[in-house]
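Hi team,

As requested, here is the filled-out complex form for the magnesium ion run. I kept the field names the same as last time so the parser does not choke. Let me know if anything looks off before we queue the next batch.

— J.
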Amino acid sequence: MSAVKTERAAKRREPLTNTSLLMLISVCIFFFMYAAAIIFMGDSGFTKPQMFFDLLNDNAYLIIIACSLTIVMIGGGINISVGGVIGLTVMACALFLNGNGIENSFLSILLTLLLALGIGLAFGVGQGFLVSYLDIQPFIVTLAGMFLSRGLTTILSVNPVKVTHAGFLELVKTKIKIPWLGYTAQNGNLIPAKLEIGAVVALCVVVLMYVLLRYMRLGRHIYALGGNQQSALMLGINVRRARFSSYVISGVLSGLAGFIFLMHKPTGNASVAMRSEMDAIAASIIGGTLLTGGVGNVIGTFFGVMILATIQKIIGLSPLKESYWQDMTSGAMLGFFILLQSVVLSSRGKKMKLPDWMKIGAPKKTA
Amino acid sequence: MQNDAVLTMRGICKRFPGTMALNHVDFTLRKGEIHALMGENGAGKSTLIKVLDAQNAGISTVYQEITLCPNLTVAENMFIGRDPGKSVHWKEYEKRAAAILDGLGIPARPRQELSRCSLAVQQMVAIARAVDMKCKVLILDEPTSSLDEKEVEMLFKLMRDLRARGVGIIFVTHFLEQVYEVSDRITVLRNGELVGEYAVADLPQVELVAKMMGKDLNDLADLEQVGQKSLGGQEVVYDARGLSSSESRPFDFSIRCGEVNGFTGLLGSGRSESVRAVFGADRVTGGKVQIKGKTVKISKPHDAMTHGIGYLPEDRKRDGIIADLSVRENIILALQVMKGFFHPMSRSQMEKFADEYIQALQIKTASQDTPIKSLSGGNQQKVILARWLLTHPDYLILDEPTRGIDVGTKLEIQKLVLKLAEENMSVTFISSEIEEMLRVCSRLIVMRDRKIVGELSGDDLTQGHVMKTIAGGEQ
Ligand SMILES: Nc1ncnc2c1ncn2[C@@H]1O[C@H](COP(=O)(O)OP(=O)(O)OP(=O)(O)O)[C@@H](O)[C@H]1O
Ligand SMILES: [Mg+2]
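And here is what came back:
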């Protein structure tokens, strides 16, 4: 009998956790926005699936670094060096591809990829060590990392470096064609939808990181760490190692993002991915990650990136296409989301009129 | 006899800067016994436990403060950090957690987020985690201070079950009755030194208190003489009609000059929420408030303070201490706010005030400059009490001022409250211990389900009457 009761207790639907609620909000807003764009701006291409794929293609690197920031932020940290690491990786890889002289083009590309991951790993390990084992503020450590990586990029080359490696350029052109999502052009030719390899990699990263955060011990330790560090320690969690790992993962992902960036635009440049760390933070927050740690989810982050990208696209296609309008709408969007989050979170559990699925039993305070 | 010892410690010493927290302490725990560890605040109980826990061999500990992660689910809090596997098996966690919670009768669901549980349930979850670790030694450091009577009973049943299974339990508490209810043996510490180990039957309560305090008192009755209750004068100091806040329903309440009254009721009956509304600690949503006959508006704590109201919050972790500031700074804080920051106090004045209250409340600290976080739990509580006493408000609200405080000091605090009332301060006193309330309050307001259900004074102030009103029998 008790077993039956137990079973039922475990099955009972729980109210959404803060993490899933915030994620759900951003997913809904994305679909709402995209639907609105299809209805009102359909003739500028939003009706075609290719528009969606282009958003993915153009923002693959951003999706990857946004995931990497989400992981660090869930652990209660921050990493603002990701953009700099991308810049450095792109430049280093471009130079390496042009100058290595290895006959076998596959081997050459593989080594380039390893170089990219290696640069990311080095930054991740260094920053992670300083933050976790020497207890230095993550903001300062990664600020230093940002300056260092940008500086190194300029040392490598002041001028833009175009990739000339034939094999790599072949790779850049390789696209996955999906005919049934294509459309027929005016001359009657079928133009298939095209997805870049980078976009596929980015989607894989989202899935992998989701699994890591949800089903792996390390991921749960990062959540615990962000929830309450002191408690995490008392629960027997190796807090330092968990935090260190989160920075290492973040670093490696930044290196990977650099490689993906180069596959999208095969030119190294000192200002590559400038400010992208800020976009990544914004995307994480829009996706429901709290800066205070312990709450967040990479699926939400993915939609955060897509929301930002869609807004920029919409503004770019509208009469207000100057870049300051894009900045201002992104800023307004971020402000709106943070407001929404704090209103939703603070009204949960209070006696306010909320839909049932948002409600939770009022947390019983003592006496 | 010594063979069934599961844990033996000999000559344990622990030194902190300025204090010898433990000085050659011996301690033995036997298989299947509940062993109470007793002593005044700062005697070294928690320190001894921490030394023990560092050994980490089949020992699990539930600490004085809750140490779980609020953003994780109940089930995850029970298993995280001790599952050697690389991946998380949610289904299995949830099933096992449900079985354990069910078996222990803990009213929590495995998939509930921990922050949605009451403090008491969180405490029980911490115990459930410890129990599931199949430990040979279970340590409970003041587990009952935030539990109500029913929950304490539940916990005791759990402890007895574990004892029957051969687990040795170390139990720290300041509630003497609880010690006599469940324990088999008592070890007494004083000032970091071992006083002795006794079988419960051989040590009457009076002697236990004497051993803890290091004074030979003739009998407990002598100690019980707290003082004359104060009925208060005629002038009404504070009067609220239909006061309500985001957390409490509308209620009427008033207090006269020099009166000591109290709110009582079960945990969750709304007694804390009521006084928080008075102080403006929650969002006030309605009602009319008069102070000394003048209508005033109190919507935030600062308003209340400028009108001469002081408030000692129940949750010292959340609302009380500023961990990195020194004892002196923590004591001075409220007075400084009241005076305004443009009227700084001189250093010598601050030192004098701090000294005065460290003396009066017997706060055990190495010096005034010690950061408050290195004080023992009970002594932190005393510092916050001192903070509010120092401001000498016209009306002082004390929510659980004696939680986690040892018997001797408890009585000192009760005496102090009555003395303040004689000096015309009005005091509202809230405590889970009805005896304590009966000793100091001349009027008790009884709450149930967030409503005032009765008011007792004069001859009605007996334990029986109060219990009946709380339970909701005939009135
Ligand atoms: N981290 C620390 N740094 C300096 N002193 C400390 C530290 N921790 C504890 N102490 C001191 O050690 C002594 C013993 O403290 P302990 O916490 O063991 O007392 P306790 O018996 O548990 O008291 P309580 O009943 O108030 O919880 C106290 O005088 C305290 O000030
Ligand atoms: Mg203690």
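Two things worth flagging: Residues B 45-46, 64, 141, 376-377 surround magnesium ion (ligand 2) (CB under 6 Å). The longest helix of chain A spans residues 105-132.

Thanks,
J.
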